[in-house]
Every structure is written in structure tokens, then in C-alpha cells.
Amino acid sequence: MNSSCSFKDIYYISPTIILISTYDMTAVVGILNKQAIALAADSAVTIGAANGNKIFNRANKLFTLSKHHPIGIMVYNSATFITTPWEIIIKMYRKQLSTTSFPKVEDYKDDFLRYLQSKDYFADEETQKLFLSWYFKNTIDKLINEVLVGQNHLIQNPTEENRQTLIELIDQKTTEFIPILESGEICPNYLTLTYPDYLIYANPIIDPLIQSSFTDNMLVLSADLINKIKLLLYHALRLKETATNYTGLIFVGYGEEEIYPKLLPINIFFVNPVLNKI
């Protein structure tokens, strides 16, 4: 799991009104003063799966995080985490939390994230591998699309010469991207993940993708280029990034030691829990 508090889409309309929007289909609003918080949200959510996303226009996005204390949570963008609806996760956490309280809103956030981790993120290993495969496939597709900018004739006229040129361009672009990804901020969950350990787990997932994305399209990659692509995927996986299939969680309310209400937004991305434990 990857969490980030960096939002480009938070708008401070006034000192007490905050609009948080994602894409054209989603908006949530929080109105804060020294005594209370008022929250509102539209009903559009994205239901994600390994083979794509669907948008639904009727969903609950506002929940109480505790039945005993003034703390709530708003959900936007993706309504599921891997395959489990956030509504189910939140209700299970609320039951476990019971009468427990924390000094600050941030403490509720930290405890909620620990709860997710303790439950293996509500996904078995096969589901995790399926989502990791989808992530790798999506990254490979982005690499190919970058290469094909202004070069569509290479696939429209697939001569042997054009195929070889395409392979060379893929090699160049992969070599270009690796240091860029390597220099980015690493997700804390993957700080200790070594490249050899990653290969042990990821090779059985990546090799079929190389076959379907390249070999089946008569693009025979060298062993060196295949290794470069695996290294690129390694750095992309470890990168702390803003992805389109994230969930926005906004923790709002009062901690026991807080005089005024707080609003704390974070982004949650999928990170493979089994791979994280290697």
C-alpha cells in the first residue's frame, strides 16, 4: 500500500471551505469552523478490477469511523481496495475500534492503515498477483505508447526492418526511463525490497507479459532488453506515485486532545502485500 498526502486537486475556497475534486466526475466538500465540520459528496465512484474500471453514480462516500467518538471518513475516486469495497473495510474497522479513541485525527489514520496491513489488505495471494500483473501490463503498454509517438508506421507496416527499428526504440526509451524512475521517491513499503528478491517473485508474472506484448507480435527482444524492462518495472513498482486507480481517503473530526476539527486527506494505492513481505 502506498499513501501520500500530496494533492494537486485541493482548493481552499475560503479559510473554512475546502473543495477536493478528482477528475470531472467526483467532488467532496468540507466546511470547517472552530466548532464543527459539515461534509458533502457526490455519488460517483470508480469500481476497479484487474481488467479495468467501471463508474457508478450511486454510492455512499461518507462514513462514521467510530460510533462513540466524533471522527468520520470520506472516500472518493475508487470505491474498492483491490477487490474489497471500502464500505465493508470501514465497517469492519469501526467494529474493531469499538470505544477506543486517539489523541489526534492523524492517530486514527495511522491505526486504520495498520488495520489494513494486518488483514493482508483483504486479498488472497492469487488476487494480489492478478493486480500486480495488471500493473506491469499497464506499465509496459505505457512504454510502448511512448515509443510509438510519431512512429505509428512501424506497426502499421510491420516489415522486418520496421520491427527491428521498433525494438531499438524500445531499448532506447527503456534505458532513458530507468534512471528517471530510480531517482524518484520510493514507497516506504518497498524500501527493503531488493532486486533479486523482486525477480524471484515477479519473473513468473512478467515473463508471460513479455510473451504476449512482444514475442506474440513478432518482436523478439534480446535477453539484455528483457532484463532492462524487468528493471524498469522494478523501479516503477517501488515509486511513490499518483496513479489513476487510487482511493482518496479523508479523515475528519476531532481527536481527544484536539480543540478544533481537523481534515486529513491521503491517497491509497495498491501495493502487493506478499511481495512486500519478501
UniProtKB/TrEMBL annotation:
It comes from the Bacteria. This is Uncharacterized protein.
